[in-house]
Amino acid sequence: AAAWLASQAAELKTRMEQAEYQLYEYKRKQHILSVSLEDRQNIISQRLQDLNQTLNKVQAERIALEARRQKILDIKEHRLALDAVDKVISNPLIQQLKANYVKLKEEHTELSTKYLPDHPKMKVVENKLKLLQRSINREIDNVLESLEAEYQVKLDSEKRLRRELERVKAEAQELNKKEIEYNRLKRVADNYAALYQHILKRQKEATLAAHQETNNVYKLDSAVEPLRPVYPRVKLNLLLAMVVGLLGGIGLAFFLEYLDNTVKTQEDVERQLGVPFLGLIPTIKPEEKEDIDDATPLRDNFLITHPKSSVAECCRTVRTNILFMSPENPPRRILVTSAGPQEGKSTVVINLGITMAQSGSSVLLIDTDMRRPRLHKSFDMKKPEGISSVILGEVGLDEAIVGTEVEKLDILPCGPIPPNPTELFHTERFAQLLETLSSKYDRLIFDSPPVMMVADPLILSHSMDGVIMVVKGASTSRDVVKRALKQLEDVKARVLGVVINDLDLDNKQYGYYYYRRYGYYYGEKESDAASTG
Ligand SMILES: Nc1ncnc2c1ncn2[C@@H]1O[C@H](COP(=O)(O)OP(=O)(O)O)[C@@H](O)[C@H]1O
Ligand SMILES: [Mg+2]
Predict the structure, then answer these.
(1) What is the pLDDT of residues 16-32, one digit of tens each?
(2) What is the distance in angstroms between the CA of the first residue and the CA of the last residue of the chain?
(3) CATH of the structural domain 1-210, one choice from 3.40.47.10, 1.10.1660.10, 3.40.50.720, 1.10.287.2610
(4) Which residue has its alpha carbon closest to ligand 1 atom 17?
(5) Rounded CA gap, 257 and 266, in Å?
(6) Which of 268, 393, 422, 505 is most exposed, with minimal Cβ within 10 Å?
(7) Cα distance between residue 401 and residue 383, in whole Å
(8) Model confidence at 5, in pLDDT bands (50, 70, 90)?
């Protein structure tokens, strides 16, 4: 036996050394001797993140440039009023030319009262006018050209970044492959090492045994019959069952957590969906009233009845986040939408409207959800008119807009639903209506149907400064939201971010998360109870 063990040991030793050598060779060839695989992975993922960020920024800038360019082209092609020029091009030379043009035009009108059209004086002025118009056009062309150049630069750097991103991604994949092979080799080497140790031990025992006398056998003690059954060992089995059950339970909990891919936290929004987190609106729980079968109106008026509640607090945070996304130029036309139905779009529209109005802005809520309109219900409006009747020219705007008990908050309800609602948003009258409303209110907030069901929100998003995606917390799956965001992205909508709605902070799991992170505390405050009396 000793000889056999010895030969085994020798063979294992060479095998082990071979495996270790292979591992070493692999590391050397793949250049992973100095830096550990894990460090490399960290470096690459950091680089990926950086690249992604820069790319997003450049892309956004490029899109902005594109939009500006389009606007200038529009002005050129449609010979829009020169007033529009000011908004797009703040070029002193053009402004000067324009001022001259206006002055000359006045002169022209004045002359025309005295002279006939083909009087030489009239001709002179007309010629001058033509010349001026031409210079203005030339200047606009210049602006356009430099814009074009800037745009090309951005486009180039975007392309470059994309290429780099692809390269780094490929590198990351390569590294993953390497890791698999590395782990395999390491396992082999470890196995041989363990086996070798084992054999060495046995070999030692065998040598010891060989030195001992083996034939002196005598009886020391007689066997005693045990008092208790040796088998089954009840206590041990019970203990084992408990440990296994406990471990299994914990494992199951982790597994369920892993299966749960709903959106619940800021991290879910930022990491998995890749858009900003605008805030959270907890589950609204109005006081119990038994004779009511639908508490929706109670919930819709909750901010009015509970201005100091934590729900109101959360809404104010959402408002601040939206306005501070671009402090110089906060969005004026805001579209609220979601991936699926019943996620709380209308609720968010109402709450955001109340909060913004309370902070002093004049706000109009517009019900452009022609599929399930409900703003008129929550404010208990009886009139049948609304935006559809205004667009169709049946009533004036003032007749359709209704005030609310909140100061500075007005509502433009939906009105009768036409057979093909989507068409409404394509009309010229709708565009005009938006312009008029923009000049009357600080903020327009639009309710809409779900992105995954109809095209309305995608079409509406064109006329908006920003789109808010409402996600029902701990309910809607990430993939669905991702797909909805993708659709918005495809039509180049400006997504401001995600609001998680209707998350029950009484739930231990994520209630604790929000409490720990942001100090959100659910439950009404004392002062609130006093104020509502
Ligand atoms: N944060 C919330 N807490 C409690 N209930 C909510 C909340 N948000 C929405 N709801 C309720 O869910 C239902 C659907 O909300 P709604 O705003 O009409 O969704 P959508 O407009 O997306 O279809 C309504 O009954 C509403 O009162
Ligand atoms: Mg709705």
Answers:
(1) 888 888 888 887 787 77
(2) 93
(3) 1.10.287.2610
(4) 344
(5) 17
(6) 393
(7) 10
(8) confident
The segment(s) of the chain belonging to CATH 1.10.287.2610 are 1-210
Ligand 1 — pocket residues by CB below 6 A?
A: 281, 283-284, 296, 299, 338, 341-347, 374, 501-502
- Of 281, 265, 314, the closest CA to residue 516 belongs to 265
- Tens digit of each residue's pLDDT (9 = 90 or more) over 387-423: 999 999 999 999 999 999 999 999 999 999 988 888 8
Q: How far is the CA of 342 from the centre of ligand 1 (A)?
A: 6
For 358, counting Cβ atoms within 10 Å of its Cβ (0-12 exposed, 13-18 middle, 19+ buried), the class is buried
Pairing of strands 443-447, 363-367: parallel
Strands 363-367 and 409-412: parallel
**Range(s) for CATH 3.40.50.300 in the chain?**
266-287+295-528
Ligand nearest to the CA of 369: 2
Where do the H-state alpha helices sit in 383-455?
387-391, 397-400, 421-424, 428-440
Average pLDDT estimate for 325-349: 93
Which ligand is in closest contact with the Cα of 367? Answer: 2
Q: How confident is the model at residue 515 (pLDDT cuts 50, 70, 90)?
A: low
Q: What is the pLDDT of residue 121?
A: 86
Closest CA to 520 of 269, 323, 294, 280: 280
* Distance between CA atoms of residues 399 and 390, nearest Å: 9
Assigned architecture for domain 266-287+295-528: 3-Layer(aba) Sandwich (3.40)
Kindly give, in sequence order, each residue whose CB lies less than 8 Å from that of residue 363, ignoring residues fewer than 6 positions away: 353, 356, 357, 408, 409, 410, 441, 442, 443, 444, 445
Tens of pLDDT, residues 449-485: 999 888 899 999 999 999 999 999 989 999 999 999 9
Q: Is the pLDDT of residue 279 over 90?
A: yes
CB 281, CB 351: distance < 8 Å: yes
Which of 324, 339, 400 is CA-nearest to residue 364? 400
pLDDT in tens, 349-366: 999 999 999 999 999 999
Sign of CA dihedral 87, 92, 97, 100: positive
Residue 173: per-residue pLDDT: 84
